[in-house]
Amino acid sequence: MNMNLKSLNYIIIILIGISMSSCQSYVMYRFNYLNPGRKALPDHVQSFTLLNRAKNNEFKQYSDSLLFKELKLTKEINVLTVLDSLAADTALHAAAIILNEEADMETVLPYQKDIPKETSSTKLSPVFPPAYVLQVCERLETDALITLDHLSVGMKTQLDTVLSTEETHWAYARILPMSYWRIYDGYDGKLIDEVFLKDSVDVRAINKTVKGLKKDLSNYKDLVISYALQNADAFTSMIMPYPVRQQRRLYINGNSELKKAGQLALNDEWDKAAEIWEGLTTHGSRKIRSMAEANMGLAAEMAGNLNEAIEWLNRSNKTQYRSTTHYHASKISKRIKLINKWARQQSKKKQ
Fold this sequence. Notes:
This protein is of the alpha+beta class and 351 residues long. The chain has eleven helices and eleven strands. It folds into two domains: 5-33 and 248-350, Serine Threonine Protein Phosphatase 5, Tetratricopeptide repeat (Alpha Horseshoe), CATH 1.25.40; 47-239, Double Stranded RNA Binding Domain (2-Layer Sandwich), CATH 3.30.160. Strand 8 and strand 9 form a beta hairpin. The longest helix is centred in the last third of the chain and has 28 residues, at 323-350.
């Protein structure tokens, strides 16, 4: 994933229809920028192989009918192997799709993607040796390897009968899904990072008959699949760049030159607009000068020059203070800190 500063500052401009009265000096310019993922990945990582180490050896390709035969209501049902394995398979496929479609990264799910763990094993499988990672990534021509090493739905149910004016049956289900993912570098075979995720959900049902109760709880499989999808989304969001929506004041009224430059900016011609604004930074009117300086800050931010943007915004505030200008400068400062934090994390990974 090419997470250099240029790509981090890549701006996806979203222009929303703007209507304004002729007397208003500014419009709100809305845009998205990309923040780095919460987990630092090397710049060269652009593609992934995904392997499933979470499936249990006992797992079979159950049909839906067989699956629900396994889900018999008793006083207490422990975690079922079939549900864990079904959830793991769903999560891995979902992660591959999300990375491919939302992050535009190549993903490979090999035909023999499953590496079953031993039935009795409750511990995580050991980290893959570098030689194995290199062999897989070289054979499948990818930059990195993702493994889902553990996923359990942690589901328990309880069935009871309540005697009141008439017999009532109720059931309770709790799902405590947990997963453990690993990411390996395909260039040196070493472990890049590990991600542990967990969640919880409670489901209750009441019915006058056990048959009706079973029908009410027939969505167990759907619940498991739903949380597997959420788990995949949570994992990929930690390693993908994510969009952050922002808005800034763009000053387009004050004199004819500000108006002309404002229209250029709205047409995404920032360089031409900046030429006009820079000329206005020596204007005799403090108001015109400060608005031009604030616009120069926005132009610098659009170009990815964040430190320069702060300099222009601070200069604008010295000319004529506006709380919104100060606020915009603080938002950019936080963005710079996040980028620097990501860079430090990446540097530590390389050591």
